[in-house]
């Protein structure tokens, strides 16, 4: 099996499992949300559903491209609304999880690059 196919088969479960984790451990995501964003519980619930759906829609060839573009949009929005403010906040308060927030920044770029690959190529199941 090619590396491209392996990456393809790993990407949907990543988003599906991440979405499911929103329901298993919502407090994890609640701690990451900036205080200025309202309705944390609702947004955690909705973002969990969105991640699950986007992961599922990566499988069918007909929805793969749009799902990949929506994943990119989601990652960019989360990058600016959650990851950057979280890193700045953690730095300013000497939060013990600061190093995780720093590692997540390049990880976001990798995830965007990974999703972008599925907007251009047709990987057959």
Q: Using DSSP, what is the number of strands?
A: 0
Largest sheet: none
The arrangement of helices and strands along the chain is HHHHH
Our measurement of the CA-to-CA distance between the termini, rounded to an integer number of angstroms, reads 12 Å
Shape: globular
The helix count comes to 5
Task: Enumerate the spans where pLDDT stays under 50 for 5 or more consecutive residues.
Answer: none
Which percent range fits the helix content?
over 70%
Please state the average pLDDT score. 89
Radius of gyration computed on alpha carbons: 15 Å
Structural class: mainly alpha
Strand content: under 5%
3D structure, described in words:
With 125 residues, the protein is mainly α. The protein contains five helices and no strands. Helix content is 82%, strand content 0%. It is globular, with a radius of gyration of 15 Å.
Main features:
125 residues; 0% strand; 5 helices; 82% helix; globular; mainly alpha
Per-chain topology:
Layout: H1 3-24, H2 26-32, H3 40-56, H4 61-93, H5 98-120
Helix pairs in contact: 1-2, 1-3, 4-5
Task: Give a quick summary of the entry.
The chain is 82% helix and 0% strand.
